[in-house]
Design brief:
Blueprint: E1 2-10, E2 19-26, H1 32-42, E3 47-53, E4 56-62, E5 67-68, H2 72-84, E6 92-97, E7 100-107, E8 110-116, E9 120-122, H3 130-133, E10 139-143, E11 150-153, H4 157-161, H5 167-172, E12 178-183, E13 189-195, E14 200-203, H6 210-221, E15 225-230, E16 236-243, E17 246-251, E18 253-262
């Protein structure tokens, strides 16, 4: 078996920045075990798999250890690669996913992703969130789904930048991942994202996290369009817009790799 594979850096305009993701275009879906094995072999935070169907593509995302219901940076990378490497002709790509229909559109040099906004509920900030992060958050919120993401709000950008998490402690929290955020100094807000329980100690740039961050900070700042930075080691920049119950994320991507997977069977 031979399969094409591509890799791009998402939410950046320069290679080696942003968040790398792979795309494996498929003619049809193989067994899930093979998808997971490919993602584990790639050892990237996300590998996207796409199958062309009427009206667009079915799209799925895998970390090295698990399938996830939504991934923003791998969707952006997949759209970029379908346009640049696979010659998809339309300026909008419709994706059919576990999280419902998603749309990627070309907007000049940027790609705009249209995602559902995610709601949050306040949780007790006195819960043991400070211990694995070494700093106490000012507020805590949880996604409105069992085991969803946790959002921790810290006092300032420097506190978020200086976090040195105990990843075993973070993985023990009953959440798919933890977003740490603060008001920005030269942007509207900053964040970092940790998800060791799905094989990602720290994700460089996390689109799905911004489906929670965008409505949260829109409410705090009274703004619909905001500039965000994810202040990981690689770093990434996003433009975030709240449109009623949808979040529009805009960013650039750059191709890094073209290749072929060879599986002897």
């Amino acid at each position: 078996m031979q399969l094409p594979i591509f890799q791009a850096d998402a939410f950046t305009s320069a290679v080696f920045g942003g968040n790398p993701a792979a795309l494996v275009p498929l003619e049809q879906w193989p067994e899930d075990q093979l998808l997971q094995q490919i993602a584990a072999e790639n050892n990237l935070s996300e590998t996207a798999f796409a199958v062309k169907v009427d009206g667009g593509f079915e799209l799925r995302w895998f970390t090295p250890v698990a399938e996830v219901p939504l991934c923003g940076h791998a969707t952006l990378a997949a759209a970029h690669l379908l346009w640049t490497e696979r010659g998809y002709p339309a300026d909008a790509i419709h994706f059919f996913t576990q999280s419902g229909p998603l749309v990627a559109r070309r907007e000049g040099n940027l790609i705009a992703l249209d995602f559902p906004a995610q709601a949050l509920r306040a949780v007790d900030v006195e819960s043991p969130f400070a211990e694995p992060f070494g700093a106490a958050p000012c507020e805590a919120f949880a996604e409105n789904t069992d085991g969803g993401k946790l959002l921790l709000v810290f006092a300032d950008t420097a506190t978020v930048a200086d976090l040195r998490p105990d990843f075993r402690g973070v993985a023990a929290l009953p959440h798919q991942g933890v977003i740490c955020t603060a008001h920005g100094e030269d942007c509207d807000f900053v964040s970092r994202f940790f998800a060791p329980n799905v094989g990602i100690d720290e994700d460089p740039v996390t689109g799905s996290a911004h489906t929670l961050l965008t409505p949260f900070w829109a409410g705090r700042l009274g703004k619909k369009v905001m500039r965000a930075r994810q202040i990981s080691a690689r770093g990434g920049e996003l433009e975030c817009e709240l449109r009623e119950d949808r979040v529009i994320l805009r960013g650039a991507a750059v191709t890094y790799l073209r290749g072929e997977i060879v599986i002897a069977r």
